[in-house]
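Hey, I'm writing a tutorial for new members on how sequence and structure tokens pair up, and I'd like a real worked example in the thread rather than a made-up one. If someone can provide the structure for the chain below, I'll link this post from the tutorial.
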Amino acid sequence: MSQQSPQLSSASTISRYFHRLAPLGLSKHAQLRQSIIHALEDGELQFEDKLPPERELGDMLSISLGTAQKALSGLAAEGYVVRKQGIGTFVGQARSAIQKAWHYRFTDPHTGQHLPVFAHFLRRGIVGTGPWVDHLGPDPAGYIRIDRLISIDERFNCYSELYLPASPFQPMLDIPEERLEDINLKEILDAECGYPTTEAKGAARVVQLDARLGAIMKLPEGSWALRINILGKARRQAISYQKMFVPPTDCELDMDFIGSS
């Protein structure tokens, strides 16, 4: 009895998961994305398995080429798949979602489950005075600023600016950038600097995004977003000030800030 080729096998696997997810009412893009992720997590797609070409996927699942391209582009950005020019698309080694994502616990309106959160490091450096000084107090060494793009299940992007007093948090300038990807930074503040975040509180208001933030979050300039200013403390001492921007979404945000995700 002849065996299916790896590519035909991956096609049938994706198709099976795709139709299994249909009752959830997801967009076709999200449905295809979740099909591949679930098949990978269940072990039915393996590292370096070759996937069908985008056009074949579209024809097989009765979705547009653009939808297939959008789903695979997002998966490639997260490392779930790897595109090799002129060769094809292969299953990659998936990124790990942030564990205990204190401030980014969004609930899927269809499943009621918290969505996976991924963080992409953008930049860091030393800055001077700003609103954070009123919350963190003066520091002659300045303040460390860490910018990250936060992907919520590849459905939408949030943006984070984290400010730390530089004197007690100098190790944060030397940590390799890759360690600032896909991790709750509070874990590093505790492990590397000895400051566990024991309390956090926030205040929110609706703002319009300027051109820079709109481009980062992939939204038009002037789009409305929720800005949440969050003060983190370690044993009643203020240690971090974060500006968090959330775009309009039908996913509910859990705002208790306890960190029990």
